[in-house]
Amino acid sequence: MSRSRTTRLSIAAITAATALTLAACGGNGTTNSATTPASGDTSAAAEGGAPVKLIVGASPVPHAEILNFVKSEGLAEKAGLDLEIVEYTDYVQPNVALSEGDLDANYFQHLPYLEAEIADKGYEFSHFEGVHIEPYGIYSEKIKNISELADGAKVGISNDPSNQARALDLLVKEGALQKIDKDDVSIVDYDGNAEANPKKLEFVETEAPALPRVLPDVDIAIINGNFALEGGLKPSEDAIVLESVDGNPYANLVAYRSNEEGEKLDALKKLDEILHGQEVADFIKKTWPNGEVISSKN
């Protein structure tokens, strides 16, 4: 997840995109999960009502692909939803747009990142449970095994706090670093720390979407699954290390404003129910058969 301000919006959303700023809304945020309603045909179409419009911001891969499947296969329409998907290539603007009311929900982030954003910017967001996991990977054009990592090696790493901590934890699990017993670990804790960083690894902070592009300039880079895919990498083939999904807290989820209520909230619950359904799980497994994206239903 990145601090880049670049967005890639659908033509239908260009007018809304011009209103985006980096100002966060005030107030104390919460991350209370909403309860998914019981299954059943409660669609507006079945009840003879008009569909409810939902504008959802998403990263192009895999989030927008999943939402486009929901739309193109008629799952949204059957549930009485008129789904509009707005694509973003960064990890800042989707939350800005949600807070300012340009989106009804977003689907691009995991819970640790969402909680960090709420703590930092005061967003009043709630969320549903995770839909899928994109295993974090370590990539290299210079070594074939993490055990070959030399002293003083350069490590490309995300510059946002939650993903930086995630990347450092992966290096700890692989024995390249020693664990530091504190919350919110960052590269600052490892720089010059001979005990925790015996290889004297040099960290190169980079905005997450750019990590695939800096791969030739570093010894290894630790890259989010979606940005690896967007950068032309195949995690199951190209990663020298892939994060385990067992007990993984980084499942990507749908977030929405905490003050949402009534028809719109009901529509968001329907969308989340679809995303957790078997049809979407089967689509994820078929589209990414080698585990690049893994449904939380599997």
UniProtKB/TrEMBL annotation:
This is Lipoprotein. Its main location: membrane. PROSITE patterns: PROKAR_LIPOPROTEIN (PS51257). It comes from Bowdeniella nasicola. It is a lipid-anchor. The keyword Glycoprotein does not apply. Keywords: Lipoprotein, Membrane, Palmitate, Signal. One of its GO terms (cellular component) is membrane. It comes from the Bacteria. The keyword Signal applies. Coiled coil: none annotated. Residues 1-24 form the signal peptide. Belongs to the nlpA lipoprotein family. PANTHER family: D-METHIONINE-BINDING LIPOPROTEIN METQ, METHIONINE-BINDING LIPOPROTEIN METQ. It is found in: Membrane. A lipid is attached at residue 25 (S-diacylglycerol cysteine).
